[in-house]
Amino acid sequence: RWPEFVQIKEVGPRDGLQNEKNRVATADKISWINMLSDSGVPEIEYSSFVHPKWVPQLSDAHEVGKKIKRNPNVRYSALVPNRKGLELALEAGIDGASVFMSASETHNKKNINKSIGETYPILGEVIKDAKRAGKLVTGYVSTVFDCPYEGRIRPDDVIRVCDQLMEDGVDDLSLGDTIGTAVPSQVEALLEELLKRYPKDKLIMHFHDTRGMAIANIMTSMEYGISRFDSSIGGLGGCPYAPGASGNVATNDVLYLLNGLGIKTGIEEKKIQEAALFIQNKLGKSLPSKSLAYAVAQ
Ligand code: HMG
Ligand code: MG
Q: Assuming Cys at both sites, which of 69, 92, 253, 289 could form a disulfide with 235, CB separation 3.0 to 4.6 Å?
């Protein structure tokens, strides 16, 4: 009924940190990512090569990329918005490049200062160059269910963006519930359409947990055979261009669910807890994950 193995991408060092006002020291980020590398997680999005003015917390992406200890069993990826970002990311070292855009015109414009039409050729070039450099490329599509500015987004608008990214050569698609509004019926409606077009192993679900629906949405996605999810340690995070949105579903909570269901991930829950406590301590505030809070209380 459910997949036997679920592949988790840890996005805490990127999505988790990008909205944090308190700067985390570069050396601490490196130690933290090294802890994550040692947890058994197969992929880590370690930072973002966007304009440092927009996301100052991640302006040390290059140094982080250069100094983290690479575990050969981990795929290290980073977010890249354009050619300049890709050049910097390639220099710093990446196994995978994550390009990103939105299904909603207004969110796309606020997030990357371009219309959807203007974004396609920019990402098209990045995808081509990244593939030429032998990298895997993930295409993030944001606001696949709801947009903070435009409201409900139709599956057709999501499909249009997905089709273009696939045509341009991305290896897979990560579908973002950017503001964490979706309920399982929305996930069903979108997956029904997407699975008519793409194999299930090409689809990754990226749920933010703003309203506590992410675990229910992951269950629904697994009913459709989806076995790849993005999550953030401790539930850290949010999108700077999606007011009020909170972090991704917590890796700790996803692991609690999957371990309970007997689904393998290859990840040691205890190591994820230690890494969550490490960053919680550096940020000086409690992270939202309930499983983490419970473990700390024991
Ligand atoms: P722009 O101002 O339109 O860029 O920004 P531009 O191409 O016109 O260039 C302007 C200046 O920026 C130039 O410098 C460029 O060199 C420089 P100047 O010549 O004026 O000195 N520049 C750069 N510098 C460093 N790194 C770069 C870069 N690119 C240009 N990569 C841009 C366009 C996309 C760069 C900007 O809008 C930006 O950085 N946006 C950041 C958006 C962001 O990080 N959002 C959060 C991540 S997305 C997300 O969280 C959603 C996701 O999690 C999925 C979900 O939850 O739905 C993925
Ligand atoms: Mg996100």
A: 289
The ipTM of this complex is 0.98
| 162 noted as active-site residue | no
User: Which residue in this structure is represented by tokens 């996803």?
Assistant: 254
Polymer length in residues for the chain: 298
For residue 100, which ligand has an atom nearest its CA? Answer: 1
- With contact defined as beta carbons under 8 Å apart, do 227 and 200 qualify? yes
Which residue CA neighbors atom 1 of ligand 1 most closely? Answer: 113
Model confidence pLDDT, tens digit, residues 14-70: 999 998 988 999 999 999 999 999 999 999 999 999 999 999 999 999 999 999 999
28 Cα–ligand 2 center, Å: 22
What is the whole-number distance in angstroms between the Cα of residue 199 and the centre of ligand 2? 23
Ligand 1 site residues (CB inside 6 A) read 15, 18, 48-51, 54-55, 79, 81-82, 84-85, 100, 111-113, 140, 142, 176, 178, 206, 208, 239-241
Q: CB neighbours (10 Å) of residue 212?
A: 12
Quick: pLDDT tens for 257-269: 999 999 999 999 9
How remote is the CA of residue 160 from the centroid of ligand 1, in Å? 23
Distance CA 253, CA 265 (A): 13
3-state secondary structure of 268: coil
